[in-house]
Amino acid sequence: MFSTLLLLSLTACVSASHGHAPNSTFYNPIFPGFYPDPSCIYAPEWDHTFFCASSSFNAFPGIPIHASKDLKNWKLIGHVLNRKEQLPRLAETNRSTSGIWAPALRFHDDTFWLVTTLVDDDRPKEDSSRWDNIIFKGKDPYNGKSWSNAVHFNFTGYGTEPFWDEDGKVYITGAHAWQIGPYIQQAEANLETGETGEWRIIWNGTGGMAPEGPHIYRKDGWYYLPAAEGGTGLGHMVTTARSKSISGPYESNPANPVLTNANTTSYFQTVGHHDLFHDRNGNWWAVALSTRSGPEYLHYPMGRETVMTAVSWPKGKWPTFTSISGKMSGWPMPPETRDIRGIGYPLGQRQHPRNPHLHPQIHSPAHLTHWRFPIPSSYTVCPPEKPYTLRLTPSTLNLTALNGNYAGPGGQTFISRRQQHTLFTFTVDLDFTPSRFEEEAGVTAFLTQNHHLDLGIVLLPRGSATTTTTTTTLPGGQQKQNPDEEEEQADPDELVPHVRFKGESYVPVPKSVVVPVPEGWRGGKLMLEIRACNATHYAFSVGPAGRRSLMQRVLEVSNEPVSWGFTGTLLGIYVTSNGRNGTTPAYFLNWRYVPQEQFRD
Ligand SMILES: *[C@@H]1O[C@H](CO)[C@@H](O)[C@H](O)[C@H]1NC(C)=O
Ligand SMILES: *[C@@H]1O[C@H](CO)[C@@H](O)[C@H](O)[C@H]1NC(C)=O
Ligand SMILES: *[C@@H]1O[C@H](CO)[C@@H](O)[C@H](O)[C@H]1NC(C)=O
Ligand SMILES: *[C@@H]1O[C@H](CO)[C@@H](O)[C@H](O)[C@H]1NC(C)=O
Ligand SMILES: *[C@@H]1O[C@H](CO)[C@@H](O)[C@H](O)[C@H]1NC(C)=O
Ligand SMILES: *[C@@H]1O[C@H](CO)[C@@H](O)[C@H](O)[C@H]1NC(C)=O
Ligand SMILES: *[C@@H]1O[C@H](CO)[C@@H](O)[C@H](O)[C@H]1NC(C)=O
Ligand SMILES: *[C@@H]1O[C@H](CO)[C@@H](O)[C@H](O)[C@H]1NC(C)=O
């Protein structure tokens, strides 16, 4: 009896002090790695699921979609842009900052809508062909085939978003190309045909650089119009305006900027480009992009990632945001569940299959990524001559390709996954017997065509080794009593396989390192490794496969060369004939990405 009373009174005490579920704790980034410009919705009709889209630039498949029912366990469920015929022009983008910018994901009338821009950043800003504005629609985000081909509409700008007003009219709002703006424009639109009415300026922002990523929300009789300003670097911020009429005039929030980490010492910088959504309890949340760089802004190989924060938005008032950090507190979250359909792995899961390529479809698992469209015949899973491997046939062009910007119809033989952890180890075994000059296969930390760090096996004349660094001799190679004498007698033009490190970046990279593959390792499989030893450096290593104790470090290199611009580092494998005629395939197996640590402050 006593204990029952005690229990009752304790229960009463607990419910009196909390009323309902306690506030939540969660961690940023919610999508680590190259997932910028997030746009999220809550779809009660879809089993109360949240869906988010992100920018993908030249990566293919493009426009990744994450889903969650509890805002904690997220899963990459697929991609809006998953077939070449949806948007053939992605093959022709001519710059590393080109491709898919700033998608807006919305759900209306039982249909998912995705409005975005394919940017060809090499063309003048005022040239409308630079901005290919497009609409995709789909009925089932778990089924890539359900996404339509792109419907194009005319707008000289980007960051476009659809909005359905209460009177049935449909609008698109976007950021006019800002060097001849800057301003936010809007037009009535037919999303089925891409026809638009007259574009009108509705807001000029608060005077920050590049007002972009506008969204419209209707709440409590107001049209709210938030945007990103200040550019996507350290000055990035969220500003808001509102109006009683969709077409304005919009008055700026006196509290602007309402969300930014500019001028702070936070590890999370560049916070901006947000989207708002609410959960089933009517509590509001925001997602935004952020860069884990600290104000030094030198080392951020994972680029612009997706972060989340709680938003207070009382009736008739402006929304206010909790500022972004690694550990966050916010509204109570929906009950925890990992029950999400779809093909990807839950984020945060540590185990990854040893060989994801041994799946009949190259785009499963969902996280595997190419740069523009792959040529399918260049990738063979389980080729008959070497089962249990992935066979890659070389592209003529290497990862830099012609000008660091364009790759042409020959494409690039490259497959990768995002770096998603501060510390990780990425290894793969390579079975490759090059037969022609400059045939090469290897691993890469790839940000863009003009920012990548590669460790390859390449066929070069015997006399090619670099001699200026202490790392140019792999100890495993010193099996001969007198290697120098041996070298002198050998034909210096004879082609032998070499280990080569080569970097490409706008910031200084170490000189190439070229070392002959030790005699004792030739003819066997080699293990290639990229490891993030700390938050600022990668180590590149090589050794005979299956003999970890013989692994040799080729060099340590700063990740500054891949901390730049709009994208984030991809870890992958490539095969190329470096502009020549070579056709020798390379075979890869035992692909492993082992997450080790996530830095949040
Ligand atoms: C790509 O840019 C280069 C100059 O960097 C130019 O020569 C080439 O014609 C361009 N290609 C396309 C398809 O725009
Ligand atoms: C876009 O503009 C071009 C050139 O003015 C025109 O031919 C085309 O019909 C327009 N497209 C749409 C969807 O309005
Ligand atoms: C925005 O700026 C443009 C160009 O300076 C100006 O013509 C326009 O009146 C401004 N619009 C608003 C809504 O402030
Ligand atoms: C950060 O500081 C600079 C220099 O004082 C100032 O111009 C800028 O407006 C500040 N940015 C924000 C978002 O507070
Ligand atoms: C719970 O989180 C919301 C959103 O951040 C905040 O407004 C509220 O004050 C928090 N409540 C408590 C009890 O901490
Ligand atoms: C990170 O590793 C590099 C290479 O080993 C080293 O030079 C650098 O001092 C390390 N940085 C920190 C913060 O430990
Ligand atoms: C890529 O190939 C071109 C020739 O097509 C060559 O000039 C360049 O050095 C190569 N770059 C790398 C990083 O190997
Ligand atoms: C490739 O092969 C063709 C035909 O044999 C030859 O004409 C051409 O010079 C070769 N190109 C290179 C870069 O070796």
Automatic annotation (TrEMBL):
Keywords associated with the record: Glycosidase, Hydrolase, Signal
Protein name: Non-reducing end alpha-L-arabinofuranosidase BoGH43B
Domain Beta-xylosidase C-terminal Concanavalin A-like: 388-593
Family, similarity comment: Belongs to the glycosyl hydrolase 43 family.
Organism, scientific name: Achaetomium macrosporum
SUPFAM superfamilies: Arabinanase/levansucrase/invertase, Concanavalin A-like lectins/glucanases
Entry keyword Cell membrane: no
PANTHER family in UniProt: BETA-XYLOSIDASE, BETA-XYLOSIDASE C-TERMINAL CONCANAVALIN A-LIKE DOMAIN-CONTAINING PROTEIN-RELATED
InterPro entries: ConA-like_dom_sf (IPR013320), GH43_C2 (IPR041542), Glyco_hydro_43 (IPR006710), Glyco_hydro_beta-prop_sf (IPR023296), Glycosyl_Hydrlase_43 (IPR051795)
GO biological process, one term: carbohydrate metabolic process
Signal peptide: 1-16
Region (Disordered): 466-492
Top-level division of the source organism's lineage: Eukaryota
Alphabetized GO MF terms: hydrolase activity, hydrolyzing O-glycosyl compounds
